[in-house]
Fold each of these.
Amino acid sequence: MDEITFLEQFVRIPSVSGEEAAVAAFLVERMSSLGFTASVDGAGNAVATVGTTGPLLVLLGHIDTVGGAVPFRIEQGQLYGRGAVDAKGPFATFVCAAARAYQAGTLSCRVVLVGAVEEEAATSRGAHYVVDKYAPDFCVIGEPSGWDRVTLGYKGRLLVHYRREQPAAHSAGELRAAPELLVEFWEAVRDRCAIHNARAAAGGQRWRWPDRLGRGDHWPAPARRC
């Protein structure tokens, strides 16, 4: 398999979150041709296994992208296209590395490759589907963190929806407008995060989130209806 051609074909297939079927089918076909046992699982992930003995290694990356067009091109030895870095490039690297070791007869572990869907969406459907299906000795996540290092931590993300409703009032009155209170709420969250990060960086005690938002001197009062 020509590795650059493989990456080019991989990147050229559109795969916005929720629309990964074509790229998953492509990966299953290619990984099968390399001698891997490959299929699409119940979430739509492209999954392959190779190796029969040794510790279990899971190589997990996502095969979906955000929207928008990035014209494919190769210039001065660099490849450009939607998902080339985040994160089709890393997953292609996983596939090629496993194939090299397998074909050379030097693979000394069992490898599971997971091309996960919907990482760029709030659902993280692919990762949630496989989280309890494997008990690996090692797991490497194919997120871009530079070519010369391995990142040992991953933040994840927290999605919060905050809504405030209150009776309408004249702008000249004393009642503060709901948008103003929403801005204050966001600034309070941002400030708390800054304090948390500063304390963590200094090695101090980390701040603990309160049980209920809206309590405490530095938080706006909760809305009557949310």
Note: The radius of gyration is 23 Å.
Amino acid sequence: MSKLLSRLEKLSRGSPAPMGFGAAARTPKTPAMALIGLISQNHKRGAARLARIEADGALLEGTNLDGKLADIVQALGPVPWGVKAAGEMDVERVKALTEKGCDFLVASPENVTVEAVKEDKPAFLLSLPAGAGDGFLRAIEDLPVDAVFLSLCPGGSSLTLQDLITVGAARSMFDKYLIVGAPATVSPSELAGLRDMGVDAVAVDAGRSPEKALKAIKESLLDLPRQRKARSERGGSALSGRVGGSTPYSDEDDDEYRL
């Protein structure tokens, strides 16, 4: 199974309630969402940053990646990595990337062949086109893909209510993992808004962002209370009419279930 999917599944379940005296203090925090770094330039430097902050994944894009891949992967260490494909992804291309250690792929629906998604690995993330209609969004739930990638604020610095509406409209149509590309300047309140809309992971630019900014985002995700309901309990498909997220809560709320 994809390491990124395993991480998303673990986060959606939350950490188990600790037992015994002092157990709460020893239990590590569970972040509200996973953190993925986008690297489109300065690949090796960005990869090293993600390794140092122990990011949940790295998404690579750009030209001539094959020639740089060995150095990038070495710099990433244990961080699972994927590729944002610009061209067609057929069986041969998927197998070639898998052999190099690729954990997940992000691609537009028109570029992925049906045979390619039948491969056990890597995980497939469907890149959501801008302005996708309700019919398109409803069809995603039955597609053989593992998650959906939605990019917000291209070139922008702040999230707007329209961005949250876009996320919420997509989230209400399917229950697959939703990963949202956001600016590296994303604030704690903006992260809370994405969490409330049911986002499972945020992806920010790691190639051009200072390590300090990436660390701040990770710390914000750790401090942010996670959603009360697990992903499997959301009823996030169009049939349920889900619009927003669940009531957030912190790990301390589990105290009532402890012995």
Note: The domain at 32-227 is CATH 3.20.20.70 (TIM Barrel).
Amino acid sequence: MKVLVTGGAGFVGTNTVIALTKRGYDVIVADSLTRRGSEVNLRYLQETIPNLDFRQSEIEDMASLIFKEKPELVFHFAAQVAVTSSVASPLRDFKINAEGSFLVARAAADIDAPVIYTSTNKVFGDNVNKLPIVEQETRYDFDGELQQRGIDEKVSIDANHHTPYGISKLVGEMYVREFGGIANRCSCMYGPNQFGIVDQGWLSHIAFNKLRNRPTTIYGDGKQVRDILHVNDVTRLLLSQADMLITDRSRIAGEAFNVGGGFQNTISLLELCSLWGIEPEFEEWRPADQKVFYCDTSKAKSVFDWTPEVDMQQGLAELYEWTASTVAAV
């Protein structure tokens, strides 16, 4: 079965390509190679997969690639991923995440190929910051009924502030779902083949800073909490979604799923710095930063019998070890 992975040399893309290849899929990998680390991931893929079918392509090229190759399934991971970049260059952010995703979704629909899309928890906008929270010694947490349960898919996406990134990813998500694909509203993912930046992949970013003896800057007080999800758990879910789209598409077409580690895999910035022996520097809060976000993933459990399996402490140790082995390459 032929599948296309856009953003296939990115973090989630690389790990998904490996998992798909092991399952026997005929995988086309498309990536612009503009993000730092993507060239390292491409070399890894080429060393791991003989005769890798790689196409260096911009987002504007993806629709024509879909029409030419006619994949039976599309994993759409190509994106502009940084909130700060979306504020500085909102038009380019829109072109990649909104218009680009529309073109992918429409082209895939024209050849009857479903799309699996990586969306973001930022689609909920400032609604998350309006929820009641409590302040604890090293972290914030939700208060009331959301405590230890988290945000589910029913929380409104209609907010008066999203950031340009949140808007563009939401537009992309809605078009993918409108054309019969599915969207994964992802929390913080981590694992091997990740080259994080301050705005995305923060666990990896902090690991690289530590190993390079660079300062780690925290915006705010460091008590911000996120649920984190190891990429092995991500790819396991993606493969289950692919199986269902192939065998029973109508059951999930048009759906959105919250994808994260859940409360049991939450960590604050202060807690991570303590774990890795980091003395951070502090600056002012950034606009629209969420003090608390973690997912209620019960919908994914109900539909796919999926729950996170990788232990957080084990996963973080693995990320740090992988980063240490790779730091000289970038």
Note: The mean pLDDT is 96.
